[in-house]
């Protein structure tokens, strides 16, 4: 039986399982010291999606060359082998490694824009320069909202704004742990704040408490808890004056279990859940809705590092049951649902947007 002709629209999984495409991809990876495991988090995506995910390291020309080589049955040639392999390896970075592939290849999820869903609304989005924050800010802007996009990188914010010409976007470089900068964020929003997406956050180094340093603890809590709290506290008066407002905090699977990260990150995300539930209870009768999303494995720019052999051993063991990593846009779909009026009757919940990990 003649194998199918591969294209850039075929999934990475299809390429790896193809009698010609598989050896090509494995050869590319081997030449940079990688193996196919690095692609597990993104195996369901079309191979052309590597262009976006690799942030320029994997080009359209590389995809075209792969397709041409597969058509010609050419496994061991190509001048861009190292660069292509490096790019493929880079896209494999996720919040956690993915689990076993399904037997039946599923179609890719396609984002569906609900135009006008945020028309007339102003939403603050932190971490808007990359990953889940960028995807969330982008969706709100494309659905008609005014976005106050906050990040620590001016370069990333400029790039984001440049991709949304004509959208109502205010960019602001700010450290969310700085009270003065928090004040600037609220001032940039103006007289009306309809939503706050608290997405900025950092990972720990996977250390258990017996090896934890004060520096890691303080840094993780400063960003993940203090920063989240400061922005919530800052927007509540405006929302109370309006009689309406929606806050969505970013928790994590680490807020629901003890096996997803080190002790500092895990404790910080449990604290985010506490901030969410208490605020929802206190201000629900005043018209505010406060919820959290708990992402599972997600393709972002937050890289996990292992400073502890014990932490690495224990967390990697837990990672063996993970579902495939999701793209940031899939998390943005969950976040914007809760932010929008579609979430009208939802308050004080922690939505596990994790591909079913929490059900395992």
CATH-defined superfamily of the largest domain: NAD(P)-binding Rossmann-like Domain
Strand order of the largest sheet: 3-2-1-4-5-6-9
Total of domains: 2
Spatial gap, N to C terminus = 39 Å
**Share of helix, binned:** 40-55%
Q: Please count the helical segments.
A: 12
* Portion in beta strands: 5-15%
Shape label = globular
Class by SSE composition: alpha/beta
Average pLDDT taken over every residue: 84
CATH architecture of the largest domain: 3-Layer(aba) Sandwich
Quick overview:
The protein is an alpha/beta fold and 360 residues long. 41% of the residues lie in helices and 12% in strands.
Explain what the structure shows:
The chain folds into two domains: about 80 residues, no CATH class; about 240 residues, Rossmann fold (3-Layer(aba) Sandwich), CATH 3.40.50.720. The protein is about 40% helix and about 10% strand. It is built from twelve helices and nine strands. A seven-stranded parallel beta sheet has the order 3-2-1-4-5-6-9, sandwiched between helices. A two-stranded parallel ribbon has the order 7-8. Helix 2 packs across helix 5, helix 6 packs across helix 12 and helix 8 runs parallel beside helix 9.
